[in-house]
Amino acid sequence: MLKSQSERKIRQDKLAKLIALNPMATDNELAASLNVSISTVRLDRALMGVPELRERIRTMAQTALSKLQSLSPSEVIGELLDLEPDKWALSVLQTAKDMAFRFTDIVSDNYVYSQASSIAVAAIKAANVIIDSMRGEYKGHAHVGDVLIARAKVGVNHEGRKIVSVRTRVGDKEIFVGRFIIEVIEA
Amino acid sequence: MLKSQSERKIRQDKLAKLIALNPMATDNELAASLNVSISTVRLDRALMGVPELRERIRTMAQTALSKLQSLSPSEVIGELLDLEPDKWALSVLQTAKDMAFRFTDIVSDNYVYSQASSIAVAAIKAANVIIDSMRGEYKGHAHVGDVLIARAKVGVNHEGRKIVSVRTRVGDKEIFVGRFIIEVIEA
DNA sequence: TGAGATTTTAGCACCTGGTCTTAATACCTC
DNA sequence: GAGGTATTAAGACCAGGTGCTAAAATCTCA
Residues A12-21: pLDDT tens digits? Predict the structure, then answer.
């Protein structure tokens, strides 16, 4: 009894992995991979609460799609909380697992950058703006799950360009400081 | 005959739009929306070569997933063409419509940045690296469809940090120059 | 107005990848 | 060899289709 129970456990673990690896696998294929009958696979799935193929595909399509949709307005990375045009802006970005750098739990730098760059642009009143140059420094790291708070301040004009400085922090720890020189193009 | 043919055409256009809008709609629902029988919907679908619901969902799931997967390993944005560890690296990034800034056909700065940052990191041999700071300048703009070529050069050590300079160009026009200071963490 | 063509609809058998239930069989343990 | 668990098989059913045939509705034009 002990032995068979652990065998079952092992099989179910394998099943979970197989499905995670390839959610498009039918019970038939899974049964073949595990060298058991379809019935067993179905039983295991039922016990584990794993939905059927079509259901898996459906939810995959939906979540993937919504992720894509929420991702592609990449312009505004982070949520714009408040702004006073040509003066300042404030945005927050909730970080998630998929923003991690490699196998760490540190948030990848380009998310920090993207939030900073988009809020710098958002802070400018004009519609036609272009980032001319920037300079930045990472002073610490955000971890997955942290909320990044970026604050942009629009500084002086400099030969038709505006200087926007952005400071990003997690809690009260500053993790990024940057200056963007933004060109405003007259329409 | 003319009239009915055009009616059919109109219905098929509507059908196509309905499906594009909501690929998860069953023939049943489509029939109800168009006020025709299921048979008609199936016939139209067959004539138009539109696959069935499950097929649509399957391809949706796959393409959305592959997009996400190609997007989320945001570490390597662009394709790494060649590299000599701790010396230099070369990557190309094919730009697309969804990388555009606002309503322009100019490639959004964060794609340029991301490619640069990821190649800078890739050029370093060590596994545990962290971007300490960076400085960059945009010298021109890439347009949707352009191929961005980024070349990273690993420079001298500087107090345990490495300086990597990245130049990005489109054709022979330089659009970005940046320097990343990267910290190597001993494991 | 009515024959002929086209379009729409209905009906039926079949398919896949499941569901749920019941029952038989295999296997292990004591 | 009995008892209990684990596995498998078998049968009925379901959704959302395909593919085919045939009937009904509608249009067109002489």
Answer: 888 888 888 7
Q: Is A67 in contact with B65 (Cβ distance < 8 A)?
A: no
Closest partner residue to B71 (CB to CB) among A54, A71, A101 is: A71
The pTM is what?
Answer: 0.55
Taking chain B (187 residues) in consecutive chunks of 10 residues, what is each chunk's mean pLDDT? Answer: 59 87 87 90 89 88 66 57 86 84 80 90 81 87 91 84 94 93 76
Which residues, other chains included, contact A138 with Cβ-Cβ below 8 Å and sequence gap of 6+? Answer: A109, A112, A175, A176, B130, B131, B132, B133, B134
pLDDT in tens, B8-37: 888 888 888 888 878 888 998 899 888 999
CATH 3.10.129.10 in chain A, residue ranges: 79-184
Whether the beta carbon of B4 falls within 7 A of nucleic chain C: the reply is yes
Does the nearest atom of strand D lie within 7 Å of A80's Cβ? no
Nucleotide nearest to A55 (CA to C1'): C18
Nearest by CB to B137, which of A101, A118, A133? A133
The CATH number of domain B79-184, selected from 3.10.129.10, 3.40.640.10, 3.40.50.1220, 1.10.3720.10: 3.10.129.10
> Quick check: B35 CB within 7 A of strand D?
no
How distant is C1' of D12 from CA of A64, in Å?
36
Residue type, B116: A
